[in-house]
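FW: tagging you since you asked about this chain on Friday. Here's the raw sequence from the shared folder, copied in full. Didn't touch anything.
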Amino acid sequence: MSSRARRADNDAQQSDRDAWRAELDTQLTGEDRPVDAERTGEIPRQRQPDESEKSESAGNGAGRGFGRTIHETETDSETEDDEAAPPPRRRKRRTRRVVLISLLVLLLLVGGGVTAGALYLRSVENDVDRVDAFEEVPVESRPDKVEAAKEALNFLVLGSDTRDPESTGGSRTDTIIVAHLTHDRSSAQLISIPRDTWVHIPKSADGKNGNTNAKINAAFAWGGIPLMVQTVEAYTGVRIDHVVVVDFAGFKEIIDALGGIEINVEESFTSTHSLTEPNGRRHFEAGLQTMDGTTALDYARERYVFSDGDFARIRHQQQVIKAILDKASSGGLLTNPGRLNSFLRATADAVAVDQTLSILNMASELRHLRSGNLTFGTSPSKGTDMIGDQSVVVPDTDKAKALFDAVRRDATAEIAASL
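HL: got it, structure written out here
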């Protein structure tokens, strides 16, 4: 595509986003506001934190504490049309409002995890925690974006379980996903990297750890989110644009708010690490079944009873994520305001995002994406092996290089062929 054609395409997409944002603003506020009354491309203005807030948010976001950045949103109290809308129009707006908010939640949960926080989009930016993901990442270490893929976006989704006794102090991340959104936002590919993958970890910002080979999730323990970003970028060659941190313990409330999810259990097994059942045991029969939040967490957490260990857990986590997306986009949620409200609030409590991610902009760009356009996969490996006294996942470097090079170039067909 020529530069002139690309500019024309970008202008058309921006015009479409502006119109959608203006319509969305009208539907949410019940006011007919001109587009120019509020620039649709802007995100809510941040208030500079005072000293106490700076100290509170100075951490790297390890664990569920995350560190919150407070935002102020600008709203207009005056409109050009103060006449009350007739009842039929209000009912239509209310229905469309619920649909749009529910769609926003679906979009923001892609990859595990970005989320909305309340029934009105203007409060979303305030209700979602923010983390410092890139400040300590050396600029010179970061991979460049390929020119043809500059409009594509790459998210790093990090998940841990604060209720899991093995995940003490928030120092571990059990889920690592590179989520790639294509330049036209028509599809997304979510690539899980097993937490025990043996890679080189750069030196941490404080100089006390790193610069050695280790399991990839050690980066989170040694240097928090910034070192994890640097490690994943070094391993994949993919530049990360945004970070999402998910506390999978919060998925219990999310799933319960949805009224449960449907999971097809591939084989019967008995979990030996249930956090709620007597003696820590919960049995799962093979086949399709509806799971509440506690049951789904036990299902997604178990790895010890499977011969392929963490690979089975990754598959089950992907099943749970997709089931949540499918249920969140179903008509039942849209017609139950109480359940929708519980779902939104539970999701906000379980997710944090980086400082630069604009939830409203992403909702606009991803509004046509559906769970059917998502592809799940796992970073290629040669299986497990022992290095010293550690059981590790040995990466297949040649296949992983081909896969992530396709991600860098936004080569969707090659990505799909590599998964």
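FW: The first strand starts at residue 129 and ends at 131.
HL: agreed, and The two ends are 28 Å apart (CA to CA).
FW: great, closing this out.
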